[in-house]
């Protein structure tokens, strides 16, 4: 369905694909944009203490040395001695899951993707595609403090692409080599109590956000990291997990990074009367994993009918407009007027193919919350029918009220 309806396509498909890379089609792009917009709204616009940033993907390689990633951003890797398939040591038991063969001892495998910058072969410099978007915020810490009026505690929000040489990409878009993250770095005073308070606040805040956008509570849980699995920078870490068809899976992490990063970059913060290295509470979510889980969680079948019960805020189209019959000029003309009027405010679909029932089904399958039909009554009393995706109930609304009516419904 994701491919057929234009949500997600295999990357470079006409050349046989490219393992671990995916492309988003017209509807997937809308879904991802809507997720990012809703995230930015709640993390930046709804608050007074968070500003945004958009750092470069490729940075001076010294950043990754200082951050510890060239040294410690590794997964333990085992290889099957028989079929030579590779796996993450922490994801397999004693034998190869593909052929039952014997596995090698775990080897460390760095996840950073190398790139070479420069035009002349001899002068090429090795750099890295960022393995997490986080460091772009830390290296700009002083710039942000100096160019804005932020005062501790404050946060910096960022959304952007990250790249990891994953050993075992898979589970559709869940583990890709190129993906998008949405992250908050929240800077606080170096104090255990304050850190615990902020950690608990952000942990709950992020869980509430997924629930407010419609993910079923039963399919969500927190999972605290064990001491031996925490990332090299983390003092405390909890994952938000989703009950995916392939098992409970992380799609956001909340970390207490302490002063690890700012200290490594030799950065500090000056209050009126003291200088110190702030601590950081981080919320790090994946846009692609969120998009995947919003899709899975909202997908329902009712006999032949598929309904994507996406929260209207996330739905690619907010409404679809149809003329009852495609070959009646008056109906098409009036429906086009309604369509143009709504298009000024919302992303709206137009459809005049096939019969009306088929068009409703086609919109249900992609999660369009409302379908507006112009019929013969519309020509007499200037109304349209509004059909609700979830209840299939219809209401007549006058054309001049259609925009506020839809705004109200979308919330
Ligand atoms: P995992 O244990 O699944 O490899 P991680 O703990 O390494 O994930 P983080 O480094 O905490 O992940 O990254 C934060 C978020 O970035 C993850 O919760 C996830 O949503 C997203 N993310 C990380 N790696 C990938 C990937 N390979 N593909 C898609 N999203 C990813």
Explain what you see:
By secondary structure, the protein is of the alpha+beta class. It contains 12 helices and 24 strands. The strands form 7 sheets. A 7-stranded mixed sheet has the order 3-10-11-17-14-13-12. Strand 18 and strand 19 (305-308) form a beta hairpin. Helix 1 packs across helix 8. Adenosine-5'-triphosphate binds at residues 132, 164, 166, 175-176, 179, 181, 250-253, 284-286, 288-289.
Main beta-sheet strand count, sense and barrel state: 7 strands, mixed
Structural class designation? alpha+beta
The low-pLDDT segments are: none
Shape: globular
Give the tags.
411 residues; alpha+beta; five-stranded mixed beta sheet; 29% helix; binds adenosine-5'-triphosphate
Summarize the structure.
The chain has 411 residues and is an alpha+beta fold.
Give the helix/strand layout.
Blueprint: E1 8-10, E2 22-24, H1 26-45, E3 50-53, E4 58-59, H2 62-66, H3 69-72, E5 74-79, E6 86-88, E7 107-110, E8 113-117, E9 125-129, H4 134-138, H5 141-147, E10 154-163, E11 178-188, H6 192-212, E12 220-224, E13 236-244, E14 247-258, H7 260-264, E15 269-270, E16 275-276, E17 279-286, H8 287-298, E18 299-302, E19 305-308, E20 319-323, H9 329-343, E21 348-350, H10 356-365, E22 370-374, H11 376-381, E23 383-388, E24 394-398, H12 402-410
Parallel strand pairs: 3-10, 20-21, 20-22
Antiparallel strand pairs: 1-2, 4-9, 5-6, 5-7, 8-9, 10-11, 11-17, 12-13, 13-14, 14-17, 15-16, 18-19, 22-23, 23-24
Adenosine-5'-triphosphate binds at residues 132, 164, 166, 175-176, 179, 181, 250-253, 284-286, 288-289.
């Amino acid at each position: 369905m994701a491919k057929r309806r234009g949500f997600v396509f295999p990357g470079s498909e006409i050349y046989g694909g490219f393992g671990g890379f995916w492309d988003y089609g017209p509807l997937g792009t809308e879904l991802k944009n809507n997720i990012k917009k809703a995230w930015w709204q709640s993390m930046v616009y709804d608050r007074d203490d968070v500003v945004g940033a958009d750092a470069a993907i490729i940075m001076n390689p010294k950043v990754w040395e200082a951050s510890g990633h060239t040294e410690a951003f590794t997964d333990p890797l085992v290889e099957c001695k028989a079929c030579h398939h590779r796996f993450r040591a922490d994801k397999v038991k004693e034998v190869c899951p593909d052929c039952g063969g014997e596995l090698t001892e775990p080897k460390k495998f760095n996840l950073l993707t190398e790139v070479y910058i420069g035009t002349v072969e001899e002068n090429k410099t090795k750099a890295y595609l960022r393995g997490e978007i986080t460091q772009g915020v830390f290296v700009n810490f002083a710039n942000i403090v100096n160019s804005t009026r932020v005062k501790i505690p404050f946060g910096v929000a960022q959304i952007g692409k990250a790249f990891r040489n994953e050993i075992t990409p898979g589970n559709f878009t869940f583990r890709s080599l190129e993906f998008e993250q949405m992250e908050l770095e929240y800077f606080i005073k170096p104090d255990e109590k304050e850190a615990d308070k902020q950690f608990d606040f952000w942990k709950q805040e992020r869980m509430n956000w997924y629930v407010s956008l419609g993910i079923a509570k039963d399919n969500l849980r927190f999972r605290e990291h064990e001491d031996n699995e925490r990332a090299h920078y983390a003092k405390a870490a909890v994952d938000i997990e989703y009950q995916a068809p392939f098992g409970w899976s992380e799609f956001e992490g909340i970390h207490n990074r302490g002063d690890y990063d700012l200290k490594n970059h030799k950065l500090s913060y000056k209050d009126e009367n003291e200088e110190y290295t702030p601590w950081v509470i981080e919320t790090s979510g994946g846009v692609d994993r969120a998009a995947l889980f919003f899709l899975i969680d909202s997908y329902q079948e009712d006999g032949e009918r598929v309904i994507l019960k996406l929260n209207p805020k996330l739905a690619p189209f907010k409404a679809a407009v149809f003329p009852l019959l495609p070959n009646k000029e008056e109906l098409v003309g009036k429906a086009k007027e309604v369509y143009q009027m709504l298009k000024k405010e919302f992303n709206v679909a137009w459809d005049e193919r096939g019969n009306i029932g088929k068009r409703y089904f086609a919109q249900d399958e992609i999660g369009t919350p409302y379908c507006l039909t112009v019929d013969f009554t519309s020509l007499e009393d200037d109304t349209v029918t509004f059909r609700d995706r979830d209840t299939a109930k219809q209401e007549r609304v006058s054309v001049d009220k259609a925009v506020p009516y839809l705004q109200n419904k979308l919330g």
